[in-house]
Q: What sequence folds into this?
């Protein structure tokens, strides 16, 4: 399964660990754009391939949604992120603080969109799975049981006002797992400090074709396709 | 107290009492709603004095297919019958047992309570939205009043410049994922301002913008407002939407808010 290969890719890990001391010095030496990109060379963001076909996640998520979501929405974040990063490079080179600051909105929105969706495709999969090993232990320790965690993650994700993401993340300082939500495309690590394990997109574009306004049905069904093996790998990588 | 008020209104039969009970503005559909309101008020008064379910989803002033091809029929149906209805159900839950007030009156302090902000805002915004649109053939015959045109030119330079700024504000990522874009009259009543607000906030709510402003035109840019027809192509939705804007209604809104320094009242 190609999924695990992408997870441990240095550059992607860098993208999910903004500011992490685990970034390789190679990346640190490159321009600031490397911090946001999911490709090692040149600091240019690329739309990642899905680790499965567009129809692989049916019936929970239709091929139509996956096609739109990946090839249109995510692709647009990538395109606009690259535009913003080019401008950032120019501003950094010129030492133009005002321009750097002016770009923050576009960087957060498009960079966050790229990071979030990259993580999302990875933590979904067509084969059913359950948490095992250290992940299962961490879930029990932090929530009492898998069902308790699922209940909290679902409720908080459904309750997000407007556009945003629900997350299961790990607090690397305490080792505990936590449920968190972020608005718009705000990325989890940069916003809360938690390292992302599982993300659930509840922008309406993620579910409108299949579920219309009934977000609770979508959130319930998405648990059928969460890839807990990937979540476990992320937990191990975070230590 | 609510029980006797309901029964008193029934017998006294004053239009004002009926209006305040049913929370409707005067209008074409208000007569049907008054009768609905009496029935509800009597039932509510007798069965459950504390809960008269004050708010309801106002009827659209046109059929679901009327805004085609710019806004598609399935979107209008789901947007009105599901999304707007959910906001109404939730604001009714949130205000159960409280003194009945027009939804407009809940806007100023909406930031004090999450449910009022989200569901009350959602109800007001959508009720406002339906009224300012018209079928394209009718909309084409409407135009800004002299007063509105003067304000547009003074505040933006020209209508085209206003539209360009509006579309920039509505572009994805400009401010937020879900929200609304508004043209408002400022508190003093001498200038128009363009503003985007997230989620179901609106400029009538204290704390959302620097000072309270009074919307005269608004556009829903939540994905549910356009996804079925436009998918991710929000800019196309926004530029097509001008074809269904009822400038006569927008001019009416403008005249009202300039004169009264208050927000436009809505049905429901």
A:
């Amino acid at each position: 399964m190609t999924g695990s290969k992408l997870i441990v890719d240095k550059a992607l890990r860098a993208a999910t660990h903004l500011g992490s001391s685990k970034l390789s010095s190679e990346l640190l030496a490159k321009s600031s754009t490397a911090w946001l990109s999911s490709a090692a060379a040149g600091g240019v963001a690329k739309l990642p391939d899905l680790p499965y076909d567009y129809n692989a996640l049916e019936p929970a998520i239709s091929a139509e949604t996956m096609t739109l979501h990946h090839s249109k929405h995510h692709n647009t974040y990538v395109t606009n992120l690259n535009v913003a990063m080019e401008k950032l490079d120019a501003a950094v080179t010129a030492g133009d603080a005002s321009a750097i600051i002016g770009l923050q909105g576009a960087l957060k929105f498009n960079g966050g969109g790229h990071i979030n969706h990259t993580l999302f495709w990875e933590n979904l999969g067509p084969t059913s799975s359950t948490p095992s090993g250290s992940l299962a232990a961490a879930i029990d320790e932090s929530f009492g049981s898998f069902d308790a965690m699922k209940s909290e993650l679902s409720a908080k994700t459904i309750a997000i006002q407007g556009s945003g993401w629900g997350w299961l993340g790990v607090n690397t300082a305490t080792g505990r797992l936590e449920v968190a939500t972020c608005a718009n495309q705000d990325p989890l690590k940069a916003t809360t400090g938690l390292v992302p394990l599982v993300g659930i997109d509840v922008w309406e574009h993620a579910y409108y074709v299949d579920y219309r306004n009934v977000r609770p049905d979508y959130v319930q069904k998405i648990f059928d396709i969460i890839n807990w093996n990937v979540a476990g790998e992320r937990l191990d990588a975070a230590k | 107290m609510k029980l006797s008020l309901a029964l008193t209104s029934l017998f006294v039969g004053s239009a004002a009492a009926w209006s305040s009970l049913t929370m409707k503005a005067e209008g074409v559909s208000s007569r049907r709603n008054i009768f609905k309101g009496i029935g509800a008020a009597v039932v509510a008064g007798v069965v459950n004095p504390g809960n008269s379910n004050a708010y309801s989803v106002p009827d659209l002033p046109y059929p679901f297919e009327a805004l085609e091809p710019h806004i598609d029929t399935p979107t209008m149906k789901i947007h009105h019958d599901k999304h707007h209805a959910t906001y109404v159900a939730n604001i009714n839950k949130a205000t159960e047992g409280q003194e009945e007030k027009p939804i407009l009156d809940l806007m100023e302090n909406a930031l004090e309570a999450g449910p009022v902000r989200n569901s009350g805002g959602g109800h007001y915004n959508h009720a406002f939205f339906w009224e300012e649109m018209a079928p394209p053939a009718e909309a084409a015959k409407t135009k800004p009043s002299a007063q509105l045109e003067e304000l547009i030119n003074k505040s933006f330079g020209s209508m085209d410049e206003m539209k360009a700024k509006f579309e920039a504000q509505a572009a994805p990522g400009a401010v937020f994922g879900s929200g609304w874009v508004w043209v408002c009259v400022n508190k003093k009543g001498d200038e128009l301002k363009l503003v985007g607000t997230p989620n179901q906030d609106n400029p009538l709510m204290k704390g959302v913008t620097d000072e309270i402003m009074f919307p005269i035109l608004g556009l829903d840019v939540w994905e549910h407002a356009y996804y079925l027809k436009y998918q991710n192509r929000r800019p196309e939705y926004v530029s097509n939407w001008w074809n269904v804007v009822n400038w006569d209604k927008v001019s009416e809104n403008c005249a009202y808010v300039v004169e009264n320094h208050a927000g436009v009242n809505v049905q429901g």
In short: Chain B has eleven helices and three strands.
